[in-house]
Design a protein that fits this description.
With 395 residues, the protein is α+β, with helices and mostly antiparallel strands. It is 49% helix and 14% strand. The strands form 3 sheets. A 4-stranded mixed beta sheet has the order 1-4-5-8. A 4-stranded antiparallel beta sheet has the order 2-3-7-6, with helices on one face. The chain has a two-stranded antiparallel ribbon with strand order 9-10. Strand 9 and strand 10 form a beta hairpin. Helix 7 (242-278) packs antiparallel against helix 8.
């Protein structure tokens, strides 16, 4: 199958401005011309897209939500999710690489970092000179983030970190890591703090990359800290605010995962439509068969719902309902994208099981969207907590 844009399956623009539409078109051209040609080879060889990342930095895509005073583009969350969607439509590995450095590294530093730290770090991240990553998950704590054991102890003008992190996207290629560690073992979740760790900090190391089911061109690896010394200025917010910072960061990063799922979903629909028109069975293209038409209609309908919810959540990112809507968008979009890839592969029949067909890669890549940045089960808990512990909403 070719990399053509396929049918017009995203005609609704959700009120995008002229500038947003122009950027969307520019990113789509970039994705088709610069990313797609090497996607199959990078996936097969588990090759990190270093050159593509460099070009994204030159385009300003790695500092989209960083303020202009720190060298970023200073764009809003809606523009951000539109760009992530376009990248994910072509290569989910590239999309998550870009999303992680923006949402879980740049955003918490820009929001909670001290001016000195922001002036040092953000321009390098925004320009693409450096990548960012986020260290929350540990071998023994995933969804239960409050159970983390990585520890940080104050030593004069430094903090000393000891512990391990697991499943860290961009590990090994990132220069800056937002790391959450326990600073007061007796204070529970209030005894957790957040830090920025430079990859060159003594005692910091990256482990062996994970061999994953999908997202082969995205690097994921564990981190270790052995008497790792970082300057005290690298503390984000105040001591003890790390758990709140981590949760706020996840509220924003879930938008990127929702947009990634929407991009994958969009491509799954395009592939199903194109294949249904080309594949002939019983003397006619399978698009003539009602069973196939029903499947394609279901994929398309859920796509529009997922896109609309994701963009609504982006518009509400800084409001009281932002966290809930981000969780709802991530939950629905990721589950819907998984259904879309399943159905699109089914439309392809036996050919969909072959690596020669793009849908087989999407089928592998989409699976993790219901897992990282909080599983679907955790999203349901987040949503219900927002509704049950807050004042009733007016519909």
């Amino acid at each position: 199958m070719s990399g053509a844009a396929g049918p017009d399956t995203s005609a609704v623009d959700f009120g995008l401005t002229e500038e947003q539409r122009l950027l969307q078109q520019e990113v789509r051209r970039f994705a088709e011309e610069r990313i797609r040609p090497g996607t199959v080879e990078r996936d097969r060889n588990h090759e990190f897209p270093a050159e593509v990342v460099k070009e994204m930095g030159e385009m300003g895509l790695l500092g989209m939500i960083v303020g202009e005073e720190y060298g970023g583009a200073g764009l809003d969350q809606l523009t951000y999710v539109v760009v992530v969607e376009e990248l994910a439509r072509v290569c989910p590995s590239v999309a998550v690489t870009m999303s992680v450095t923006n949402s879980v590294c740049c955003w918490p530093i820009a929001t909670f970092g001290r001016d000195e730290l922001k002036r040092e770090v953000l321009p390098r991240l925004a320009s693409g000179e450096c990548l960012g990553a986020f260290g929350l998950t540990e071998p023994g704590s995933g969804s239960d983030a409050g159970a983390l054991t990585t520890a940080a102890v104050r030593d004069g003008d430094y903090w000393i970190l000891n512990g391990e992190k697991a499943w860290i996207t961009n590990a090994g290629y990132a220069d800056y890591y937002v790391v959450v560690a326990r600073t007061d073992p007796a204070a529970g979740k209030r005894g957790i703090s957040a830090f920025v760790v430079d990859r060159h900090a003594p005692g910091f190391a990256v482990g062996t990359p994970e061999q994953k089911l999908g997202l082969h061109a995205s690097r994921t690896a564990p981190l270790s800290f052995e008497d790792c010394r970082i300057p005290a200025i690298n503390l984000l917010g105040e001591e003890g605010q790390g758990f709140k910072i981590a949760l706020a960061t996840l509220d924003h990063s879930r938008l990127g995962i929702a947009a990634q799922a929407v991009g994958i979903h969009q491509r799954a629909l395009e592939l199903a439509v194109d294949y249904a028109k080309e594949r002939v069975q019983f003397g006619v293209p399978i698009a003539k068969h009602q069973a196939i038409r029903m499947v394609i209609a279901e994929i398309a309908t859920e796509l529009e719902v997922a896109r609309g919810l994701t963009r609504a959540a982006a518009l509400a990112a800084d409001t009281r309902e932002g966290g809930r809507l981000a969780a709802e968008a991530k939950l629905f979009a990721s589950e819907a994208a998984n259904r879309a890839c399943y159905k699109s592969l089914q439309v392809h029949g036996g050919n969909g099981f072959s690596e020669e067909f793009e849908i087989s890669r999407l089928y592998r890549d989409v699976r993790v969207t219901t897992l990282y940045e909080g599983t679907s089960e955790m999203q349901r808990l987040v949503i219900s907590r927002h509704l049950l512990l807050s004042s009733p909403r007016t519909c």
